[in-house]
Amino acid sequence: MxxxxxxxxxxxxxxxxxxxxxxxxxxxxxxxxxxxxxxxxTVLATDPAAALDLPAWARMRGHALLDVREPGPGRAAWxxxxxxxxxxxx
Length: 90
What we know:
By secondary structure, this protein is an alpha+beta fold. Helix content is 24%, strand content 26%. It has one domain (12-83): Translation Initiation Factor IF3 (2-Layer Sandwich). Its EC number is 2.8.1.-.
């Protein structure tokens, strides 16, 4: 997991390449845990199940799915962008 900066407009890259289900979701959840609402996570995953699992995780947590990009020319992994929801107020 590599923070791209403290600006919530700069994505936080979560590298889950080479990991099988459910680890891409586990890594995304860990990266999201202490981040403010509005932060964008870009999850890189080679497991095709991540293209379904990460959007489902985002929906269940109230996060916004921004994009799912398939591997292809210039891209060796799935790329899933999620904008984190603000945590619930106490």
